[in-house]
RNA sequence: GUGGGUGUAGCUCAGCUGGCAGAGCGCCAGGUUGUGGUCCUGGAUGUCGUGGGUUCAAGUCCCAUCACUCACCCCA
């Protein structure tokens, strides 16, 4: 009997897995510097939170959720995205005493029952940020710049930003009706015709050429925005431009979740196979009320960690794999192994990054392991050194080797490594 | 859910019109009984994805099935 990762999932293994950690940290760093606090919510929630928050008509809810009954008969769903959980937590615990907005960031795994392909799996990792409880174009612009800065800090140059406004409860219905009128006149297959009635905006997202060809004359949201939405959107654009953010207005940009209003944006990259988005987000002024909370106009984004790694690999970043440790000990013989073990523990406690050769292999094998570890220094310890109370410190880049008294090893190495 | 491609060693793959299961890399050991990277020598590792069928004989042909992969719908 053997096992493999469940269908549609994958493992990040060393050394490549280091990239995930680096990306996660880098994407979160700008938000942390901007006063966003860390929030951690459960990986699963009451199913109703997602069906009501994300939207009954979305594909996520209709066919992509991992839903099951727990032993208490409750319907539970593995989170397919992060925003609904964060909003639930904020509503549940009451608003913090401080001023609005409540600014939060988070990071974790999300789950969707998808048919896997490059850049799209049944479990994936995101870093998210949300600014809850305020309506201010500067907050929208702030979040976008934080994401832009995160990508830039990783060295990515191929990330493009698309920007749009989906309007609000005032102006969207009229646009929706106009779009439906237009779409009903097209030659489309049955699933798409159904989508016209449920969520017509998403028809604009269809990638099939025969569909896109018919959409050229479709009415655009931007032509139907109310005065308030138009002014809001203009202000977001002005602030972004002032911050030096390059973006493309895309009146066709819609997003898969029902809760989005006004500002929406997506970060695209070409290194993801047939997927294109490395991140995305927008304003969701109605979500809180949809899930039973007070009016809390909010805005946020989620950036795909795995997809960002793919994008970076496509750009040829990550040239060299980082070495795992700085120092590698090679003991020769039983007694030396005991002394070496103690030395390694002491060096680690002194703050050094240290590994050692296990399994009683010979010097040659031990040195080979030292070399493969990427360590700068090897510590060689045999009977002769034990007798002298010293250890051979060998610089693996220059092959220079000197005997150092055991008591001085830590300080010597620290000096050489600083 | 739909369509294409691929399943052979840890990894990347070769294996022709059926005829002894292979290479490179990696791993282990030796050359050097206390010294890595280069070099040389040797070694270990396989239900050939799985089940069935055809055949004297199947990694190879046929059927089924599973998995992986890429793409579509959709999505970060």
TrEMBL record:
EC number: 6.1.1.21
Compartment annotation: Cytoplasm
Similarity remark: Belongs to the class-II aminoacyl-tRNA synthetase family.
Binding site for L-histidine: 81-83, 112, 126, 130, 255, 259-260
Gene3D superfamilies: Anticodon-binding domain, Bira Bifunctional Protein, Domain 2
Listed GO CC annotations: cytoplasm
Protein name per its UniProtKB record: Histidine--tRNA ligase
The Aminoacyl-transfer RNA synthetases class-II family profile domain, residue ranges: 22-322
Record-level GO BP terms: histidyl-tRNA aminoacylation
Alphabetical list of Pfam families matching this protein: HGTP_anticodon, tRNA-synt_His
Principal place of residence: cytoplasm
HAMAP family, per the entry: His_tRNA_synth
Lineage: superkingdom: Bacteria
The species this protein was found in: Acrocarpospora phusangensis
